[in-house]
Design a protein that fits this description.
Helix content: 40-55%
Distance between the termini: 36 Å
Strand content: 15-25%
Strand order of the largest sheet: 1-7-2-5-8
CATH class of the largest domain: Mainly Beta
Oligomer: single chain
Order of helices and strands: HHEEEEEEEHHEHHHHHHHHH
CATH superfamily of the largest domain: Regulatory protein AraC
Radius of gyration: 20 Å
Length: about 290
């Protein structure tokens, strides 16, 4: 099985280009992973290298073959990560449009997936055989997509169907309870508070006072827990919401207001810095592609 690192992950074709993407990799001495989100569905199978994984406010214990089903615009990532020598995982990323089309008008795969996670349950158990088979197939898709032409990539889709079948069967037959363990501590309470109030004016001073800690303790402990600073996390949550709002036909100034930015100029600077394009350019691309949520 080929070993791939994070640099090669960044070189993968994005789901937006072909509707799907697969990745298998073993990262040596992995660095901390920030909480992040995607505009597509992600199926993540963790084999080694993580102890707890968080999706929105939910924390799950991780062991070999854990399957995380993560919908678009859901913050997720490892938390309170211990130092593991390797991080082994496989990823399948699918756009909503791809899921809507592969059912051949007989089955709405996007609705099937949304039904599986309707109760905010995102973590499931793959049996050992299925976990190994998914690893093999996704690694093959990953390697083929790096070198294949458009026709070969289209043919690659056939490998995705058994993977989807195994994942959906696992999500039907297993249920991993949210486990309130050591990571769900004061920092988790603070993160949940931010998730509920990030569109409101928030400051390090105000949050620290609310939870009875010093600003320096809050700043240092939050970085250890979420692998990014408080302000950085708040900003990324606001940008995530802004991307969702840009699908709607509302003025950009109203998007800025709804997402917690004091004025449009601050919103414009932040959105452009994080996404590499202005809000108007992002919306223009959405309209050109006919994308909807």
């Amino acid at each position: 099985m080929q070993k791939l690192d994070n640099a090669k992950l960044r070189d993968c074709l994005s789901p937006a280009e072909i509707g799907y993407n697969a990745f298998y990799g073993i990262t040596q001495n992995p660095s901390a992973e920030k909480m992040h989100f995607h505009e597509y569905y992600q199926f993540l199978i963790i084999y080694t290298g993580a102890k707890h994984y968080m999706v929105n406010d939910n924390i799950y214990p991780v062991s070999y073959g854990k399957l995380m089903i993560i919908p678009p615009f859901h913050m997720h990532g490892m938390i309170d990560r211990e130092k593991f020598p390797v991080y082994e995982r496989a990823l399948l990323s699918l756009t909503p449009e791809f899921l809507q089309n592969i059912g051949n008008r007989q089955l709405d795969f996007e609705q099937v997936i949304n039904d599986k996670i309707a109760s905010n349950q995102y973590c499931f158990d793959l049996d050992e055989e299925s976990a190994a088979e998914c690893k093999k197939l996704l690694a093959e898709v990953d390697v083929e997509n790096r070198h294949a032409n458009a026709w070969d990539r289209f043919a690659n889709v056939s490998r995705l169907f058994p993977v989807l079948r195994m994942m959906l069967e696992a999500s039907s037959s297993t249920y991993t309870e949210k486990k309130l363990t050591a990571p769900e501590s004061l920092m988790h309470q603070i993160l949940v508070y931010i998730n509920a109030h990030y569109t409101e004016p928030l400051s390090l001073k105000q949050i620290a006072a609310k939870f009875g800690v010093s600003q320096s303790t809050l700043s240092h402990s939050f970085i250890q827990y979420a692998h990014q600073g408080v302000y950085d996390y708040i900003l990324h949550r606001r940008i995530m919401l802004a991307k969702q709002r840009l699908y709607e036909n509302i003025p950009l100034s109203e998007v800025a207001y709804q997402c917690g930015f004091g004025d449009y100029s601050n919103f414009l600077r932040a959105f452009t810095r994080i996404t590499g394009k202005s809000p108007s350019a992002y919306r223009k691309e959405l309209n050109a592609g006919g994308k909807t949520l």
